[in-house]
Structure prediction request, 711 residues.
Amino acid sequence: MRLSKETERKITEMLSEMTVEEKVAQMQQVSYESFRPEVFERFCKLGGGSFLHVLGEEADAIRAQAAQTRMKIPPIFGIDAIHGHSLLNGAVIFPSQLACACSWNPELIEEMGRVTAREVNADGLDWVFSPVLCIGRDTRWGRVDETFGEDPYLVGVLGAAIVKGYEEDGLVAACVKHYIGYGEATGGRDSYDTEVSMRKIREVFLPPFRKAVEAGTSTVMTAYGSVSGVPMTVHGKLLRKVLKEELGFEGFVVTDWYNVGSLRTKQKAVESYRDGVRLAVEAGNDMSMNSYQFYDHAIALAKSGKLSMKYIDEAVRRILRVKFSLGLFDESKKRLPREVIGSAAHVEVNRRLTRESMVLLENNGILPLKAQPKRIAVIGPNADDVRAQYGDWTFFSHPHESPADCMPSGDYYTVLRGVRTVFSESEVVYAKGCDVMEYSDDAMLEEAVALAQSADIVICVIGDCLKQNGESRDRANLELSGRQNELVRRLKETGRPIVTVLVNGKPLCIGEAVRNSDAVIETFNGGDLGGLCAAELIAGKWNPSGKLPISFPRVSAQIPCYYNQYPGWHGDKYMDVEQGNLYDFGYGLSFTSYAYSDVTLSSATAKAGDVLTVSVDVTNTGGMDGYETVQMYYSDRFSSVLTPERQLCGFQKVFIKAGETVRVELPLAVNDLSLVDAWEQTVLEPGVFDIMVGGNLKALKTAELVIESKS
Ligand code: BGC
Prediction:
């Protein structure tokens, strides 16, 4: 955040004029949904610092009230624009973060951020509660769909890209969340304690936040949970020392929903609300989301000298900085016309990203379809369920569940609609077959089987539903629910070719369905165009390039199964499950094939601070042009603390024509090979490193790098 000296001076001047009440009001965020109307009104009149979940005209009305207050400080309006401005019906709904991560395309994800910022700005709002930088390693957790997957490097690169997209045009502020370790809660249970060491925090969970701070995020949200028993809301070491001092974060920190109140009511970490307020502010929270009693307690604490004014002044300074940097004080602040919302140009960005987000998991050669089928049976509980396809954080589920007859006002394509559009010459028939969760009746199943029997090909769409996905909706059992496995088995018995399309929030245990399918496509929550792009893929309109940002276990109890684990001792397998994951991180098929050769380093030796070039020849050995994601991993052969056998340290997506060879050059910052030692220090240890390059974890070519001196 770059502010002129003059603006900083102006802020200092404002701070000297403001009363304690006016300052604390800036630190209070209130949500329209969570309070009695009179409480909400009170904060509108007082000039509350921020409002949440207010849309369009309501925001204008609150802004007008703020303009009547003595200091005339405009509020900042926050919204959970998680995959597009998705709480607004009519805005472009992008694929979920997890789906977008399958594109491994930071440029497109940055573009998604830019589009979202434009739509949010045109709706009169200023601040998006996105991206989620949690690491999705325990897939029981209900919010894995909101992550960029399991790898800190990939999460960091994609997170920094979207922050840049949100912030670069100065239209909205980003909010990276949930700081920190939230996704790793014990048992995959949302908001529980995270039992990891500070060494682990620095090694795995902090790097994405570091990248986002470097990319200029204006705000950070504190997680619900705790790290090693210390509630994040009062974690002075991680908030004030590490985030603000060490990473140099200059924006402001907002708590998550009711964090301050929960210190007493849920976490039992303080005896009184007031103590919670004091500890939260001292630890480094600048704004309290929705613990509205915060306001009166903070004023009382400040007036009695129990909470130093230096903390309050610092918090307000940070909040005002963000408001100035967004131009909120400027009455002519750029607001884009409402017509940009859902505009054709925005839909086009969504189309490119959704295409690149599709992952082809299996293909026995049936895809792309060689000829237009006469009759296609589209079967399955998720074939025509737009709610399941959108996933969490849209107007369907937030801030309230919308009525059953609510439908998107813009264009959207479930798989059924997509197939009807793409295969317009074919006869397309549809049956649901079964429910996702319930044990539905036989008649439903038999109807689907009969339809399949009558068709030339079956497109079967299964997965999970909104009830199984999202905040507080963790799962202990990740097997396909209801009668879905039975449905695919029965369809297979018809002898018709089966293309299975998965519409789901996160990796499920799909082994049986895979065995009964001729091809499998993973779409996760594909947004408006998920169904259309799946149909296009089946028709071979373009060559799929998506790669998984997360590993798939064979059975639920294999979790965690993320790829970058430490080496074990007595073997890494269970005696009662086939070894290895069903699908690894980085995996995804294409309609062509690629061969890698000649991995070379610009230098075989290096020291801290060097940036090398790793080069490799990649040949498209098949018959179709395509995009390949070249992945680079490293392994530290011997290290003072355990290190993963493979850790991603670079990637590049390249277009290669059929039959052509491209020399791909990947930059390798040697400092990225550092480890966090037993004393929590980040060091580059001398020794031999293997640098591995390839299109997936099972086919990597290696070059050796020697690090000569200790940093
Ligand atoms: C979630 C946040 C979200 C906030 C505001 C919380 O329950 O954890 O991710 O931004 O609500 O809606």
